[in-house]
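Lab meeting, item 3. Inverse folding demo.
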């Protein structure tokens, strides 16, 4: 079984990215949200651990967490697939299955509501 660590939102960087840190192992990341998502590892911490974090728990996120066995936290069984490479005419977007999965875990890809 893998070790699970909970990341905490610690602030916003000058770049606009959110800074997350793990109080258990010291891992720090910068996470920029859509429409131009990006994850940058600032401090690696325990790279063998699974790190999870949640900004605002809500009923949809709690239901998805329970469905996927996150409660004591475990791995989510189906991570999203990488989108097709972006082109100027067709920016990269998740397919319908990935959008449903993202919605189940409380992520609003299109940004209409806070996840």
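The presenter then showed the designed sequence:
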């Amino acid at each position: 079984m893998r070790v699970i660590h909970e990341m905490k939102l610690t602030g916003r960087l000058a770049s606009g990215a959110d800074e997350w840190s793990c109080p258990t192992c010291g891992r720090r990341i910068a996470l920029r949200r859509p429409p131009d998502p990006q994850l940058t590892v600032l401090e690696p911490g325990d790279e063998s651990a699974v790190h999870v974090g949640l900004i605002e728990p809500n009923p949809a996120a709690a239901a998805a967490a329970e469905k996927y066995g996150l409660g004591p936290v475990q791995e989510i069984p189906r991570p999203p697939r990488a989108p097709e490479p972006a082109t100027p005419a067709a920016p990269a977007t998740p397919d319908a299955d990935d959008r449903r999965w993202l919605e189940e875990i409380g992520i609003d890809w299109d940004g209409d509501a806070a996840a």
